[in-house]
Amino acid sequence: MTTSGNSLTGISSDRSNNTKVKTCKTHGIMHEFMLHKSMSDNFITSLRDQNRSKFRHLFIQNPASGSTLGLNHQHTSTASDNVSGSEKFRARSLTIFGNVEESASEFCRFELLRVLDLQECNDLEDGHLKDIHKLWHLKYVSLGGTINNLPRNIEKLHCLETLDLRKTKIDILPYEVIGLPHLAHLLGKFKLGKKDLKMSELEKLLPKKCKLKTLAGFVADENAGFLQLMAHMNELKKVKIWCEPTGADSKSLPHISKAVQKFAQDGMDTTGVRSLSLDFGNSMGDFLGSIQEYCYLSSLKLRGRLSVLPQFVTSLCGLTELCLSSTNLVGNDLSNLSKLRYLLYLKLVEADLRSFVIKNGDFPSLRRLCLVVHSPVLPTIGKGALPYLVSLQLLCKDLADLSGIKIEYHDCLEEVALDSMVSTKAVEMWETAAKKHPKRPKVLFLKRIDPSEAQSSVKYVAADGPIPTKGSSIEFSQVQLTQNMLQNECIIRSVQSSSVNKPNSALKKIIVSEPHQTASELSSAGNGAMPPSASYA
Predict the structure, then answer these.
(1) Considering the domain boundaries, does residue 149 fall inside one?
(2) For 403, which of 50, 313, 378, 501 could close a Cys bridge (C-beta 3.0–4.6 Å)?
(3) How many domains does the chain have?
């Protein structure tokens, strides 16, 4: 699908660092049309549909009690009330939103199921998964934030390729999971159990030909099991590690350094995607200084304090994407990044970047620059620097003006992205500067999403425009009132409608393709292991 951000098509999208679309959201008429078309073509339907056995993609939406979405349903009975005990389903994918209610008892009825998406379930319990092993065709499973433990019998899902646990509360990963023979993408944040196994015993847990491509990720603590196993995961392309040293001696740090070096050196024989993300937590990331050999990575993310920029970073071969967050690096250390002459994307998330100077000739290949700062004082960018810059993201809600940035220096510039909370004055100044630029770059706005965890990185998503300040509260209230009236009118109309086939505005959360965000992140790590139906990090 081709997406755009204009109001005619009603599609907004979020893009990854390589500009590929990760997720998109349709609005209004376009959403209703796509939903109606998908249903009429027997592509997707609700479990309440009487012809459900003919469809390959089913969804169940049971809003929580008291939710306004409940007004949009044709009747209030649960999905399971309409299912015959002898009914056979052809469905290959099942997505459930809201409260799972009685629907959990129907999982095992879908014997041909390949994709099970439960990320948005509000009341899913560990016990609901007790029979999941019976769905032995499953290739993709995603679970939501109410799950605390995985059943041990998950080891029977021999066809499973993607297991997404990022929204769950699972801290300890059962050893049985890493033994799944076809597992290619394992997503979450977990540790191995406290069970003390020798290296020879750990190796036996892995299948003979481990197919794991994405391990994002695990917590490195006193149990070095994951770090040791990484050496035997020959297909790994994407790794994320949270450092959690215990005690003053930080015994895990040497193991982390060794595992990182092995992973990066194994990439020297390839030119493909190889991504590493390290979160130092409360420790220092200076252990990377012990890596002296040349290594290969295409993407590197470092989060946490650094006393100096490690030589490991500037000597990486093939590095095209770099993200540094909360490192406290200043001055010369940041300027040394200019040695990365083939860098295409640079993101810096720091409290203050005023000492960062980008000189003439620096970053000759850079296409996209993202600066997330607390202080509205931006780096100095000289004329002749960043000659091929296409996208400039300046994310600071206190940005009051152009802050010394001269976009006329960048002949190839196509877009400027600002924090949606910036002042009206700043918006006007940037839009004026964009109009004077020969290429008239677009001025876009990104909305800050605070992380769910205290130590997670701040994220931004596409916004329709700047968020009105208090000075325009009267105008904003009028717009909000109009929107509320339109929404109420839509609800009334949907209640009056009795046709099942008519598009339902309550289903705005339905995803026409099966799994969501995950796949865009995984596709870069390797296409071979993804479910045929999973269209994507």
Answers:
(1) yes
(2) 378
(3) 1
Q: Consecutive 10-residue runs of the chain (537 residues): their mean pLDDT? A: 46 63 76 81 69 68 44 37 56 82 70 90 87 92 92 92 95 88 95 69 77 92 82 91 68 84 86 91 84 91 93 92 94 91 95 92 96 92 95 94 94 96 95 96 91 66 76 44 46 38 37 39 41 39
Distances (CA, A) of 138 to 108, 156, 159, 394, 402: 11, 10, 6, 43, 52
Q: Decide if 430 is inside a domain.
A: no
In 99-182, beta strands by DSSP E? 115-121, 140-143, 162-164, 172-173
Rg (CA), the chain: 25
The answer to whether 127 touches 153, Cβ cutoff 8 Å, is no
**Token pair recorded at residue 525:** 């790590």
- 238-243 and 368-373 as β-strands: parallel, antiparallel, unpaired? unpaired
What is the C-alpha to C-alpha distance for residues 399 and 169, in angstroms, rounded to an integer? Answer: 37
What are the contacts of 40-49 at 24+ separation with CB within 8 A? 40/501, 43/512, 44/510, 44/512, 46/79, 47/79, 47/82, 47/83, 47/103, 47/106, 48/74, 48/75, 48/79, 48/82, 48/500, 49/500
Domain ranges, residue 38: 34-63+88-170
